[in-house]
């Protein structure tokens, strides 16, 4: 009986959740913001939780990552209609570098490159934590 208990204890303590590395996630396709993460030790700037979707949302943040590095993004419009947030579609480019996602877009004639740290929750859910505009 002690041997069975010992084996069970070893199995339970040695099991580790398999982590998916960002470079093993296929980001091509459509992702919609499903929530926000508060700032924490691992996410000093907080983050947005993205889940795979079938279409870009009309009234939410979303990204369509194409295989050729092109991007269509639904982001806040630069038009402020207080108190309602309006969204606009922006075209741009994306590039993944290990656990970082670089998103380049043109807003009002100005090129903006945003840098996000990627934290993988599952293959269909990730967290993009804003690092800085380059």
Strand order of the largest sheet: 1-2-8-7-6-5-4-3
Instruction: For the record, give the distance between the C-alpha atoms at the N and C termini, rounded to a whole number.
Output: 61 Å
Question: Kindly state the mean pLDDT as a whole number?
Answer: 79
Please name the CATH topology: Lipocalin
How many beta-strand segments?
A: 8
Portion in helices: under 10%
Strand content: over 45%
Largest sheet: 8 strands, antiparallel, barrel
The structure class reads mainly beta
List segments where confidence is low: pLDDT < 50 over at least 5 consecutive residues. 2-18
Number of helices: 1
Highest-level CATH class: Mainly Beta
What Rg, in angstroms, do the CA atoms define? 19 Å
What does this structure look like?
This protein is mainly beta and 134 residues long. It has a single domain, classed as Lipocalin. The protein contains one helix and eight strands, in the order αββββββββ. It has one helix at 2-14, and strands at 29-37, 47-53, 62-65, 70-76, 87-97, 100-107, 110-122, 125-133. An eight-stranded antiparallel β-barrel has the order 1-2-8-7-6-5-4-3. Residues 2-18 have low confidence and may be disordered.
